[in-house]
Amino acid sequence: MTLEQQPPEHQHHLDTSGLYCPEPIMLLHQKMEEVKQGEILLVTATDPATTRDIPKFCQFLKHPLVKQEEDAQEYRYWIEKA
Length: 82
Known about the structure:
Elements: E1 12-15, H1 23-32, E2 40-45, H2 50-61, E3 65-70, E4 75-80
């Protein structure tokens, strides 16, 4: 039996539930302007396209994707501001 790893602590949250590409990424780009370097933003989404788009966003802008998880209803991403 393994213990469930606790999600990383976050200072900001962006809920994009119910929105579809490209809206989650557009809102993420705007929200990252409010986040200070080293802080973590939790993004929640329901659009499956975010599983492709958010990691690419992080890679392109060099923001570490600290953790990514999903369940039947929701995708969650913890992004550290570079």
